Amino acid sequence: MKLILHVWRQKNAQDKGRMVRYEHPDVNEHMSFLEMLDVLNENLIAKGEDPIAFDHDCREGICGMCGFMINGKAHGGFKGTTVCQLHMRHFKDGEELYLEPWRAKAFPVVKDLAVNRVSFDRVIAAGGFISAPTGSAPDGNAIPVAKQDAELAMDAAACIGCGACVAACPNAAAALFVGAKISHLGHLPQGQVERERRALAMIRQMNVEGFANCTNIGECEAACPKQIKIEVIAFSNHDYIKASFLERPESEIAGVG
Amino acid sequence: MELISHAPTGPIEQSWEKHKFELKLINPANKRKYNLIVVGSGLAGGAAAASLGELGYNVQCFCYQDSPRRAHSIAAQGGINAAKNYHNDGDSVYRLFYDTVKGGDFRAREANVYRLAQVSVNIIDQCVAQGVPFAREYGGLLDNRSFGGAQVSRTFYARGQTGQQLLLGAYQALERQIGLGAVKMYPRMEMLDLIVVDGQARGIVTRSLYDGKVEIHLADAVILATGGYGNVFYLSTNAKGCNATAIWRAYKRGALFANPCFTQIHPTCIPVAGEYQSKLTLMSESLRNDGRIWVPKQPGDKRSPASIPESDRDYYLERRYPSFGNLVPRDIASRAAKAECDSGHGVGPSGLGVYLDFSDCIKRLGKHTIAERYGNLFEMYERITGENPYEVPMRIYPATHYTMGGLWVDYNLMSTIPGLFVLGEANFSDHGANRLGASALMQGLADGYFIIPYTIGDYLANAKPAKVSADSPAAKDAIANVTNITKKLLNASGSRTVDSFHRELGKIVWEYCGMARNEAGLKKAMTQIVALREEYWKHVRVLGANEEFNQSLEKAGRVADFLELAELMCMDALDRNESCGGHFREEFQTPEGEARRDDDHYSYVAAWEYQGEGRAPSLSKEPLAFNYVHPSQRSYK
Hints:
Strand order of the largest sheet of chain A: 2-1-5-3-4
Distance between the termini of chain A: 72 Å
Number of helices of chain A: 8
Strand content of chain B: 5-15%
CATH topology of the largest domain in chain A: Fumarate Reductase Iron-sulfur Protein, Chain B, domain 2
Largest interface: A-B, 77 and 82 residues
Radius of gyration of chain A: 21 Å
Strand content of chain A: 5-15%
CATH superfamily of the largest domain in chain B: FAD/NAD(P)-binding domain
CATH architecture of the largest domain in chain A: Orthogonal Bundle
Largest sheet of chain A: 5 strands, mixed
Largest sheet of chain B: 5 strands, parallel
Number of domains of chain B: 3
CATH topology of the largest domain in chain B: FAD/NAD(P)-binding domain
Distance between the termini of chain B: 41 Å
CATH architecture of the largest domain in chain B: 3-Layer(bba) Sandwich
Strand order of the largest sheet of chain B: 5-2-1-9-17
Structural class of chain B: alpha+beta
Oligomer: heterodimer
Number of strands of chain B: 19
Radius of gyration of chain B: 24 Å
CATH class of the largest domain in chain A: Mainly Alpha
CATH class of the largest domain in chain B: Alpha Beta
Order of helices and strands of chain A: EEHEEEEEHHHHHHH
Number of domains of chain A: 2
Number of helices of chain B: 17
Helix content of chain A: 25-40%
């Protein structure tokens, strides 16, 4: 089959960027979307043209490195599918496709379709963890975890950190990403001690990074390749509001000094 | 070179305890004076960087991905072994040790494997404390499943995403240390050379993948946790970016490379669909619990699977191995599939595939039960192939999955270069000639959380590394080497893409140094690899410049290293005149076609030392002694 691709080309973060049209006659329905781009890149290199940069690694839908917009939809908009797992049989011969990078202030473009998502790491570094230094753990069965809690934690922990939720959100909010981590750790007994602190720290860092606020539109849930539910946002809002009321400056806490 | 393992003597049950006590310590206040480099952020590297940061060392951690959370440990599906005996089914540290030594076909160091089994229990505790959402039973306690090569249930899991959850646990611990300032993280930064000063590893040279900037990073010790070299085959279950550059360039600076020919081919992967194929996808080993593997009896039978009657099908694993049936270990299942396809019984458009059929178990257990067990795998299969495995049998074929070989390390995980430590899949240590399922995650985390934090202190206390400067001749030489390689690649101005070379190399290695090897084939492969390498440096085309985000250039450097490593793999395979685990030499098999080990002559670790360009590497041997698990012929009949 044959495709017409319009691809966002941007040399680096400083470049303005533009859409460039490519005709791609060598598409096979069994190829993955990224393999289709591999073949286009081989053709470009043969012609002496700069290949299209895009991020990818595991190509199994789990590392979270790949992702861009296809016709305005994150990862192409197919249910529960990252772009590396999307196959060309879903497209029609002669179809025109528009490929663009994630667009968000907190995800600056590196080149073409590749963006910088270090902001996500900084949000995790602010509080997306349980403090459990190596060697300090009690026996794994010392704290029973109700099966349902473990399942709810796992549902949220399935997030791959790809950024599709941010790209799909008209506000470029990171509420689904942040909510998934707060919900994952907050459903477990081990995560209770730091629960309030975690919500405050992560959401504050999220704001520092330039992610906007959630206005309950729901595009994130629809775009999430791991089908994380929007209820994680309700969970993190609950924790954040509670923590905001309970917060006291460290100096006022009895015992300090 | 004499290889001293530093494995403790005396009763194996106490050897790690005794060894830990004998290791020198660094006072907490002094730890912050030491700078440590960790390359790689997967289970081994992430766990090491986090744990060393917690101890108070100054840590710099590097990864080529955009975030440490992307490392390929994340893709492991099945689970992680630990000798907890939570199920009262007779498991013990000794049994896990025994199974691992035997599963590795008696080519691993006993003391290392025993320690691995011992710390396996601490790993589970650590991960639970971090919030890894392991599967639970209704009473709230941890659930287990069984896995190949073991008769007890000792595999802990988090749905089909165990690797992901363990990695996120290590990643979150690492991010916590980054937030606290104990670890400095360098994402999209690739190590391109090792700096060795006065015989000690003292730093690395990196290239920023953002803008090509080449930099020197100095330290008191360097830890490589950069994974395996499975991508030498081009097609593998590894991530696209997985590469051997860090360990290969360390090899060229004097670290010995052990058992490069020990590679694992996983039997159940989705077959290659076409020339454009970029990677292979694994279908979990657990599918073999319920699926039945078969091929048509008649070679070249092109009928659809549904129209081939029972009497015309050959369930070859059940026929050849009646007691283990479809659950024989990975190496055996892979070779059997290859034999069927080689004799013309293969299915699918390419003839390189066998059926994995679920129709019997769906009849027996109902579609619902099968969906509960394997639903996500069936979905993934359908997404990739467009076929529904509830209705038509899956087509599967073996694919490269893991490399047991790697840089040689002693009991302290230190390579032959003092101050250079190697963890996880990047070292050769614990799996011998074949790795059992659910043991890679265990080894990565054991090395990172529970071994390196002890052994590195002993090295620093003894070696007392002197001050070193970025102006030292060794650092300048390393920078010049990196710059030179980049220039050569950019200036080759040929006509062939990097991928086309990589694909061709993969075909050679797969054909002659894959599931079955023989002397003539290996010699042929070595000639072809040398010729391909020469052509590479003349005719490769890498566009663009160094000073930009240049994915072709990144790949070009990695493929240049694979072109060298492939030759060493073949050389090692040629030198080992026996069959063991994943290394099957056709000349050395039993009359029934099984691997024939030669313990009298080959019970050793083969460690290769670089001798300079154009010169053959020299071989050193570390003899293996088995005082606890007596070597026997593996039989699965």
